[in-house]
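Please go through the sequence and C-alpha cells given here and tell me how the chain folds. Record follows.
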Amino acid sequence: MSLRIAKYLFMFGLVSSQEGTSHWWKQRISSLLILPLTLLFIFSLSTSFGGEYINVIKVYQNPYQVILAILFFAVASKHLQQGLEVVIEDYVHNVLSRKFLFFVSAIFCWTTAIVGIFSPLMIFLLK
C-alpha cells in the first residue's frame, strides 16, 4: 500500500493511527495530575461556600488560588477531551458521526477550558 493511499484511509478513519499507547499514557498522567488538583481546588473553594459574593472574590485575589484554578481547569478539560475521544471511538461506528462528535467534544472542552481559565484570571486582574 502506498503512503498516499494510507494517508487517505487514515483521514476517513479506516485504518489505525497507531497512537493508542501514547494516548493511554497521556490519559493516565492527566488523571494523576487531576486528583491532587481537584482536592486542592475543592478545599480552597469550600472556604467560601455559603458565603457572599465578596468572599469568593477575596479567595481569587490570592495569586496561588488563581494558579490552582487555572491548572485545575486546564488539566480537567484536557482529561475530559481524552475520555470523550475514547468513548466516541469505542461506541460510535459511523465515520461521519464520529468525526462530528470529535469536533463537538473538542469545541466543548476548549470552551470549558477557556472560560475556566479566564474567569479566575479576570477576577485577579480586575482588583
Notes: The domain at 17-125 is CATH 1.20.1300 (3 helical TM bundles of succinate and fumarate reductases). The mean pLDDT is 87.
